[in-house]
UniProtKB/TrEMBL annotation, chain A:
It comes from Cladosporium halotolerans. GO terms for cellular component: spliceosomal complex. This is Pre-mRNA-splicing factor 38. Belongs to the PRP38 family. Residues 193-217 have a biased composition (Acidic residues).
From TrEMBL, chain B:
PROSITE patterns: ZINC_FINGER_C2H2_1 (PS00028). This is C2H2-type domain-containing protein. Residues 185-196 have a biased composition (Basic residues). Residues 40-71, 174-214 are annotated as: Disordered. The keyword NADP does not apply. Residues 40-49, 174-184, 205-214 have a biased composition (Basic and acidic residues). Gene3D superfamilies: Classic Zinc Finger. GO terms for biological process: mRNA splicing, via spliceosome. The keyword Transcription regulation does not apply. GO terms for molecular function: nucleic acid binding; zinc ion binding.
Amino acid sequence: MAHQADAKRALDERGYTGALIRGDNPLKLFEKPVRDRIVDSYYWKEQCFGLNAATLLDRAVELSFIGGTYGVAQKPTPFLCLAFKLLQITPGREIIMFYLEQEEYKYLRALAAFYIRLAWEKDEDVYKTLEPYLNDMRKLKRRTREGWALTYMDQFIDDLLINTRVCATTLPKINPRLFLEDEDRLEPRESALGEELEEMENEDEDAGSEGEVEEVANGDAARNGRSISEQRERSEER
Amino acid sequence: MGDRKAGAYGTSTGGDTAFRKTWDRDEYAAKAVERDQRIKEEGKARHEAAAAGKKYVRRASTPPDARDTEARKARLNVADQVGKTSIVPAGAGQGKRGKGAGFYCDACDLTFKDNLQFVEHLNSKQHLVATGESGEVRRATLEEVKDRFEWLKRKRDEETAKDAVDLGTRIENAREIEEKEREEKRRKRNEKRRKTKDGMGVPEVKVENDGNIF
């Protein structure tokens, strides 16, 4: 078993033979302009040539930020290039789980989470695999179009599950958690806050503050379809 | 019609047609058989591919001794020529061919003017063939991934252990590094000495290696 050292053949329009994701070439999960920019970038040519699932670790442990494209020229970040490489080599499930479960390197975990959201086809699997990491509160540096931003692992995972666009990529459609719960494909999520959350809600209700809070009753951010980042902002406002 | 071998003027040696090439009939018959066989085999393969609903593509065979392509071990050092003067032979290289000023590829005997072209060349089929690589990367197993991860972790830990803040360990570390460098120098010197026949070693005159003047 082997795969090509670069993505030239996989990107050939005249036909693709290889692993499929959702019945299509995995590399097409990235949009054409981003694809072209990645293949043109120096990082891709120099650092991503001939990587396999093991040597990819060398590059992944050196990651120091996440992000999509940056600058006026919209250069792809190393994070994006490595995600693209992962899509090209489509490593086995157990390898991706190993990337995700290791504690040492947070950017490797973020990379694995991003890949899982892109490549895994069953919605339940994605939720079940990624949600435990909503407890991971480590900081992540994110490169934005111009400048830098601070985010957290839980926020990043939450973005992956709720937003449609993350890191210059349109994520494949995923059913919202509530829908899956209604169809009995998923158990309702136990929040890490547990009873504390309910107590907090009761207090809020007693105080009779905003009407919005009532919506949150017996649910947490992900269930309610509201992202953690929004909640953080809201709590800061208060 | 008389004798076939006779020339136009009745000479028995063939005379004026002696200049013609004489064909080794057996050799060409063997070649024809081989060719027929090849065509037959290809037709069979083509038929089988069509039956399986695929398109038959004839491929040049990969040399049996080609090894797998591997990831670069280190970053390309594009700055190692900075600040050095090198002598380029007059009229060296037509276009990219030959050794000239720039990034030189030993295997393909080509020179590139910028690192982007150079790295593109290193990834190209031409270069891979010239260095005997197949252009295919072996898939890693979970075990390999785990081993690699452990190795990387160990490496990082060793590096961070060196980042000591107290003076004693820092002096100790510096001494170790110095010792290593000295050892390396000694090794090089000995190697040089061994290379010459009389064992006296080359005199300490800087040779112009690769046309580089330091």
